[in-house]
Amino acid sequence: MADKSTILIVDDEIVSRYTVEVLLESEGYNLVFAENGEEALEKAEELVPDLMLLDVMMPGMDGFQVCQILRANPRLAELPVVMVTALDDRESRLRGIEVGADDFMSKPFDRAELRARVRTITRLNRYRRLMETEEHLVYLANYDMLTRLPNRSLLIERLRQAIGHARRHRQGLAVISMDLDGFQIINDSLGHEFGDEILRETALRLSQVVPIGTTVARLSSDEFALMYESSSLVNDVSTLVQRILDCISKPFTMDQHEIVITACIGVSVYPSDGDEPLVLLKNANTAMSKAKGQGQNSYKFFTEEMNALALKRLILENHLRKAISRDELRLLYQPQIDLNTGRITGVEALLRWEHPELGLVSPDRFIPVAEETSMIIAIGEWVLQTACEQCKQWQQEGLPAIRVAVNVSSRQFQNSDLLSTIKRVLNDTQLTPSFLELELTESMLMEEDLDKKNSSFSMFRELQNMGIHIAVDDFGTGYSSLSYLKRFPLNTLKIDRSFIKDVCANGDDAAIATAIIAMAHSLQLSVVAEGVEEEMQLAFLKKHFCETAQGFLFSRAISADDMRVLLEQNQQVVAPEKASF
């Protein structure tokens, strides 16, 4: 069967060209000839042959130069080149390898060798091209050529795999369907080229705003879809959808035109809204249609239950944004008791939100929302300012000097302005730094890479050098890494209340609490036990030389005025002799 591969034979000698033609004519190849390097490059560019037999020694441009130029041309860089030379020396072959030759043959030709080499190389090149063609066809079958995003086919396949994973691991999965508002008007008024640019920019914005691992696909004209996996779908998806709407609604500037585009979004959730890819897509589209009915730049969940939860969270978020300006935030203070003297040595400032309509909102409800929306930065600054002012006011009233502990979130520590904020607050309130304690969670410590230049370690060190105390809250609930405790500049460990609750009845909890106290003392750290509610718990802590405790046994979190009364009394909240061992 004839092989239709094209072979370009480059040789300035007519005898050599004729010899190759005679040796290969019965093989069925399409033979093309060039007499010099310039002609070889022209025909290679025109034909893109399957193989070039390239003579090395030619007048003008030699074979080495031709090969080097070929390899610099993206269109011809993969063209197989066999250099033909009468020079059977090592230096010529090495130079040929350097410029990109694939193989070498010597003159005069051996008929069997020439045929075998040409047959092998052309077969491999045809296979390579076939694979490239198949890869291109696979790409065309799975990706949108305009935006380079996955298409409907690939999205459905990925959805099928994600549903299987979510089913095995009992995780949540959301399908988000998005449609641009009024896109057809843009196409009709400004032209399809402008519309295509809008679609490409939309695809880019979506890819940049979604979390890593989220599939973004283009389904049709101006319709996009996302597949998003999360363990907390209502909160995470609501936040993500709002980010998408905000991102899309930023002005597009193209060809001196500035256009603002909005979108409507529908969300369906596995498994409540379906357990098949097409069903989830259909339900997400249904929700999107309902969102369009509500007006532009809106979104809707498929299930009413999810809509209710999302709406409730949105209302909570909107109210929270006004909480500081409306003076709705409150600080309560829970005393910390020295177990040797029974006196108050410090207080922990605890945030509460008192809304005129929603009532007293639990921190468990609004703190996660504040974290997700970065409102925790402003709220945290308010807490720090208020707590330091109150502590300083108690001192100015002649009350016993105590330390105030303020919780600081990981989002605050990621904020580059935190250190300057703390310094400013201390300067404004004139509170001595040693009367301020910052509490961070154990998980925050574990997230820190102390070897990185941007680690918070240096900030912790500077804070401690200022005299500020640093405490690890909820200790024992995370990894409890001894290496981190040794390296971090810390002052205090707070034993989580979960270990104190059953410390007198559960041997494991007792062993953990005892170990934490001993470890802290070995590292020259003080210990605070949280959640102390019973006399037996107090006795256990004193027996094992825990210095400080807080909990309902001594006092609940109380207002600043009630705390003032306790400090005025300046009495032992729990007498040392009261506990029995």
Core attributes:
single chain; 581 residues; alpha/beta; Rossmann fold; Alpha-Beta Plaits; TIM Barrel; 3 domains; 8-stranded mixed β-barrel; 5-stranded parallel sheet; 22 helices; 21 strands; elongated; disordered C terminus
What features would you describe in this structure?
By secondary structure, this protein is of the alpha/beta class. It folds into three domains: 6-142, Response regulator (Rossmann fold, 3-Layer(aba) Sandwich); 152-319, Reverse transcriptase/Diguanylate cyclase domain (Alpha-Beta Plaits, 2-Layer Sandwich), CATH 3.30.70.270; 322-578, TIM Barrel, CATH 3.20.20.450. Helix content is 48%, strand content 20%. A hairpin with a 2-residue loop joins β7 and β8 (223-230). The longest helix has 32 residues, at 111-142.
Number of domains: 3
- What is the beta-strand fraction? 15-25%
Which percent range fits the helix content? 40-55%
What gross morphology would you assign?
Answer: elongated
- Could you name the CATH class of the largest domain? Alpha Beta
Compute the separation of the termini in Å.
100 Å
Largest sheet: 8 strands, mixed, barrel
Oligomer: single chain
Unreliable runs, pLDDT <50, ≥5 residues?
574-581
User: What is the residue-averaged pLDDT?
Assistant: 85
CATH topology of the largest domain: TIM Barrel
The strands making up the biggest β-sheet line up spatially as: 13-14-16-17-18-19-20-21
Number of strands: 21
